[in-house]
């Protein structure tokens, strides 16, 4: 069974190890990032010699060398690049996809892509009928935030899709420590990079980072803007003092044990799908290790008004006093839609 693992970071490292030890031997792993020093405390497939290497390549090499002798048929294929740069047909080559992504946009894109692969027809009673069940590629999504995490099973066109539950993911007010990436995409990435660099290069001279000390934050803002400029992130420039303060004060640590728990649940679901020995997760699991160990499982059904898998059109009301610009801005902020670049044609 060919499997795609999306992400080779905290969750991806655990997933690769778990899947191979569970008997899966045809695995492709994709990640656009490179290994950073800050990754080594929890992403165990990497070592100091991996710093600067593409995560997908370093992870594939590591598991191939350590576990290839046990699983002689093992083939781990690394792909370095953005998920969104892959053609739709690429995803049709896999029978199962496990995701360990750290952002909503990539999850939504993957969700929409898998939905587009499933051809449907409208029955005489108006219900949706799947033409070919073999086009359904299960997605086992996982995510962590400090001591909390989730795992969910998405069967495109059958269960609720990722966008059906989009309201559960409001705009972030806290930022994972794993936002320290060598290929930044947001202001949070750049500020997290600057914060990590501060602890290595400026803490001995200036003291522990304090967001209320002007000198500290000026250092953070300068380095964050330099990092953004180096990668051509004009959309996030300039990173102001207030933006940097909001991020620095809300970066929470990435916990290795949380990654291990969520990845173990994802791998167990993969085994159940491959072997059909037990019923699958139905279909959303929440984990909280902050006070003891707590899990809750519930079914997240399809939303008929979902913009991804539901009705092709949605009726919205706008007050007569609202301008077109205000309406477009509201679409971007709406918790149910969270459109990245809404526009009117």
TrEMBL record:
This is NEDD8-activating enzyme E1 catalytic subunit. Belongs to the ubiquitin-activating E1 family. UBA3 subfamily. Keywords: ATP-binding, Ligase, Nucleotide-binding, Ubl conjugation pathway. Pathway: Protein modification; protein neddylation. It catalyses: ATP + [NEDD8 protein] + [E1 NEDD8-activating enzyme]-L-cysteine = AMP + diphosphate + [E1 NEDD8-activating enzyme]-S-[NEDD8 protein]-yl-L-cysteine. One of its GO terms (biological process) is protein neddylation. Catalytic subunit of the dimeric E1 enzyme, which activates NEDD8. The lineage of its organism: Eukaryota, Amoebozoa, Tubulinea, Elardia, Arcellinida. InterPro entries: NEDD8-ac_enz1_catalyticsu_C (IPR037078), ThiF/MoeB/HesA (IPR045886), ThiF_NAD_FAD-bd (IPR000594), Ub_act_enz_dom_a_sf (IPR023318), Ubiquitin-activating_enz (IPR035985). Its EC number is 6.2.1.64. Residues 3-293 form the THIF-type NAD/FAD binding fold domain. One of its GO terms (cellular component) is cytoplasm. GO terms for molecular function: ATP binding; NEDD8 activating enzyme activity. It comes from the Eukaryota. SUPFAM superfamilies: Activating enzymes of the ubiquitin-like proteins.
């Amino acid at each position: 069974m060919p499997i795609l693992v999306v992400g080779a970071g905290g969750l991806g490292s655990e997933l690769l190890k778990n899947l191979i030890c569970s008997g899966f031997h045809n695995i492709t792993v994709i990640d656009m990032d490179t290994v950073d020093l800050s990754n080594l405390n929890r992403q165990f497939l990497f070592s100091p010699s991996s710093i600067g290497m593409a995560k997908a390549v370093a992870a594939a090499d590591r598991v191939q060398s350590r576990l290839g002798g046990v699983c002689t048929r093992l083939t781990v294929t690394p792909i370095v690049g953005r998920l969104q740069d892959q053609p739709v047909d690429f995803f049709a080559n896999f029978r199962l996809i496990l995701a360990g992504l750290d952002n909503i946009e990539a999850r939504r894109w993957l969700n929409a892509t898998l939905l587009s692969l499933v051809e449907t027809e409208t029955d005489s009673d108006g219900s949706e009928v799947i033409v070919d069940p073999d086009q359904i590629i299960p997605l086992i999504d996982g995510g962590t935030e400090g001591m909390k995490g989730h795992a969910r099973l998405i069967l495109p066109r059958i269960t609720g899709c990722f966008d059906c539950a989009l309201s559960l993911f409001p705009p972030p007010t806290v930022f994972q420590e794993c936002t320290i990436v060598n290929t930044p995409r947001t202001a949070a990435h750049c500020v997290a990079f600057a914060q990590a660099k501060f602890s290595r290069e400026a803490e001995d001279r200036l003291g522990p980072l304090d967001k209320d000390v002007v000198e500290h934050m000026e250092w953070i803002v300068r380095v964050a803007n330099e990092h953004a400029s180096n990668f051509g992130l004009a959309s996030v420039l300039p990173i102001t003092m207030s933006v940097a303060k909001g991020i620095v004060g809300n970066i929470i640590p990435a916990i290795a044990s949380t990654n291990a728990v969520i990845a173990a649940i994802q791998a167990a679901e993969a085994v159940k799908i491959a072997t059909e020995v037990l019923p699958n997760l139905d279909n959303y699991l929440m984990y909280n290790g902050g006070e003891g160990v707590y899990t809750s499982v519930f079914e997240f059904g399809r939303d008929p008004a979902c913009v991804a898998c539901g009705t092709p059109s949605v009726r919205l009301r706008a007050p007569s006093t609202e301008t077109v610009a205000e309406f477009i801005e509201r679409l971007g902020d709406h918790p149910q839609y969270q459109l990245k670049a809404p526009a009117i044609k």
